[in-house]
Write a structure and sequence with these properties.
The chain is an alpha+beta fold and 444 residues long. It is built from three helices and 21 strands. It folds into three domains: 149 residues, no CATH class; 86 residues, Immunoglobulins (Immunoglobulin-like); 158 residues, Sandwich (Jelly Rolls). The protein starts with 10 loop residues before the first helix and ends with a strand. May play a role in the negative regulation of cell cycle progression.
């Protein structure tokens, strides 16, 4: 009995399945291609780093050879000079003694010749010559001989050369330098900030105990890295970053109790697309840095709120103020965020603004909160974090209240509250006001 025949598949279904298979194959091919590129990048990293390490080793040991040769030559010259000095100082008394002896020999030879002549002469003449010779000889001390030093009392120079230095140097050389397959620290994360990038790194070698870290960066178009941080922290914000420009970052570490630095981490490329925060230029009473991210309250008598040049703060970001220097505090001082610029006010302690005073008081729409933060001091960092919570509409839907959850942090303490606004705002201004000179604030 013939089995039941299966129904013919629908051509449209087959076509759809074929298309899906083609799409899957193309996606699979793309994934494989990306993995091949990853393998090629890994291969290049190994090859390039190996070549660079060879160059570094060759250069280092060539430098060592040159330095050792120079040090040995200098030591040889020093020892030869010491031999020359000893020789000159100890030969001089011998030279003086030799001159004295040679003078005595010459005198004795002259006396011998005169005596022989006196003996050979006639009787009458002989007596006169003998008398003259005897008189002359009596004035010469023929029994006085100069003392010549014994050989045991005369310096006998020699060089004491101990071959143990070769053993010491050999042991040091055989243990000098190491080759690491990977650095003990690596960059973990790059977080863009307005006008800056937060760099975070971590230790990847459990056997390595880090005492200090060293962070460097450079523009991708530059050949020179520069130090931006040395210390024990594992996070640092690099400021003065131009937007939409690639920068390279690398970090190394110094082991506990050691002087040399570890190999550099694999360089990471980062950039910031966020517009840098800037204070408004030309506002009387404040002078700005070249990048306009630092404001200094000067000696002018003018008062008012110094605002940002544009509403560059967006919800979801962290706005940071760092107080570089302080002046005399005033209860009207303020650092904070507002909906819009409103000239005519001397403080952000007003409606449509949230701020903190230099005494630590927190104000929301001009009203002081019960909770208070520590007073602002030199080096204090004040941060504002905001996120949209909900939009509550009124009965007629004509207007609504936009609620922002605000967190203000300062000196390891924070306050959290809801800020009600009459409408949703995409971006906000920031500002500050100080009534006495000396206050300097960096914003990022």
């Amino acid at each position: 009995m013939r089995g039941r025949m299966e129904p013919e598949p629908n051509p449209e279904v087959l076509l759809q399945e074929a298309r899906e298979s083609i799409d899957a194959a193309q996606s699979y091919r793309r994934e494989l291609g990306q993995r091949l590129q990853g393998l090629q990048a890994a291969r290049r990293q190994i090859k390039d780093s190996a070549s660079q390490t060879r160059d570094v080793l060759r250069q280092h040991f060539n430098d060592l050879k040159g330095t050792l040769r120079k040090l040995l030559d200098e030591r040889l010259v020093s020892l030869l000079q010491e031999v020359d000095t000893i020789e000159q100082e100890t030969i001089k008394p011998l030279d003086d003694c030799q001159k004295l002896i040679e003078h005595g020999v010459s005198t004795a030879e002259d006396l011998v010749r005169e005596g022989e002549i006196a003996i050979v002469g006639g009787v009458g003449e002989k007596n006169e010559k003998l008398w003259s010779f005897t008189k002359k000889a009596s004035h010469i001390q023929l029994d006085s001989l100069p003392e010549v030093p014994l050989l045991v009392d005369v310096p006998c120079l020699s060089a004491q050369l101990d071959d143990s230095i070769l053993t010491i140097v050999k042991d040091q050389i055989f243990n000098h330098g190491t080759v690491a397959s990977r650095p003990p620290v690596q960059i973990e994360e790059l977080i863009e900030k307005p006008g800056g990038i937060i760099v975070r790194w971590c230790k990847v070698d459990d056997d390595f105990t880090a005492q200090d870290y060293r962070l460097q960066f450079r523009k991708s178009t530059s050949n020179h890295f520069e130090d931006v941080y040395v210390g024990s922290e594992t996070e640092f914000i690099v400021l003065h970053i131009d937007p939409n420009v690639d920068y390279q970052f690398r970090v190394c570490a110094r082991g506990d109790g050691r002087q040399e630095w570890s190999p550099w981490s694999v360089p990471q490329i980062g950039h910031s697309t966020l517009v840098p925060h800037e204070w408004t230029a030309g506002f009387e009473g404040y002078s700005l840095s070249s990048r306009r991210n630092i404001a200094l309250r000067n000696d002018s008598q003018a008062t008012g709120v110094l605002y940002s040049s544009a509403p560059t703060y967006f919800c979801g970001q962290t706005l940071t103020f760092r107080v570089e220097t302080v002046g005399q505090p005033d209860k009207r001082d303020s650092i904070g965020v507002c909906v819009e610029k409103q000239n005519g006010y001397d403080s952000l302690q007003r409606d449509q603004a949230v701020c903190i005073g230099t005494n630590g008081a927190v104000f929301v729409n001009g009203k002081e909160m019960t909770n208070q933060l520590p007073a602002v001091t030199s080096g204090s960092t004040v941060t504002f974090d905001m996120e949209a919570v909900t939009l509550v509409t009124t009965a007629n839907n004509d207007a609504g209240n936009f609620k922002l959850r605000v967190t203000i942090s300062s000196n390891n303490r924070e306050v959290v509250f809801d800020w009600l606004l009459d409408q949703a705002y995409v971006s906000l201004y920031f500002g500050c006001s100080f009534f006495y000179p000396g206050w300097k604030v960096l914003v990022f």
